[in-house]
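Kindly draft a polypeptide, keeping tokens residue-aligned:

***
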Amino acid sequence: DADTSDGVAADGGVMTVEACHQALAAADADLARDLAASRAASEAHTAARQAVRALDDARARHRRVDEAVRAVEEATSEAAASAVGVGRLAESNVADLAVAAEVATVRLDRRDAALAELAAAQAGAREVPGRGPVAAADRELGRLRTAHATAERVAVHVQNDRNRLATELARLTGVAVDPPSAIPGPPALAGSPLADSAPMPERDEAAVALAAEFTAAKAELSARSAAALSGAQIVLCTWGQLMGNPAIYGTTYDEVIVEQAASVPAAWVLWAASRSRNTVVLGYALDERSPAAALALAAAPAELHRWVAATLPQLLGADSSDAVRAHPGGLVVE
């Protein structure tokens, strides 16, 4: 028989009390190290966010330069087209030539104004950090954000292992295991009211741990969602899932089927159609009414009204039985 002097089988399948004590001490040390690493990653992430915010003015000024460049290009192209038009009309009647010259003058004025705006934007951009530091700060923020999430996930896994060992030791000895007191709390900011404040209550530590566990679970769920989609042959989802889950809307599909297509705004259906590599099937009842027609359109430009208020079957002229039958791909199921 196996030695059971401490009440635990020593066959290798169940930990002894001594081994459990040793494993718990090692887990406490690992947890202290990983929590410190997580806090350091959090501080680095926060500093990177602050660095990116500090460059918001530079980012806005560089964006103004880009917009001014596009405006100059458009205005120059229009002015060149007008010049060509005036040249063609040089031997035409005076009235046509006068109109073309007036248009050319307006376009040249617009080009000059665009050039002045570009010069002002470039002058403003010289007063702030260049595009290189801005792009480097953005890349550093992305890297530190990922490092922070990874450090939190590692700490949560170690915390779970430590809790499992503590539960096992409590079962073996009948004595509850206290939380590891050697784990330091979050560092206080020098010169801040937090520097001399009391230690964080246990329930606050539990809330922080739960928040980190939620972040890690969310990241793991996203990864599993992407993995599941990569091996799926058929994906069924709502519009909310299609637009809200990157693992779904970031994937392309062999075929896309849109049910109740007459109840979905045309722009959304066309966007869903862009996810298809082959064909798109619109399924709808001819008596469906689009809920988009009830949307307030006062603030929308007139040319966008039809995209907000109409559906794709209406825009395609396939909102009647006869129109669907006449369409090469149409099918009416009575």
User: Anything to note?
Assistant: The longest helix spans residues 131-173. Confidence is low (pLDDT under 50) at residues 1-13, 181-203. The radius of gyration is 33 Å.
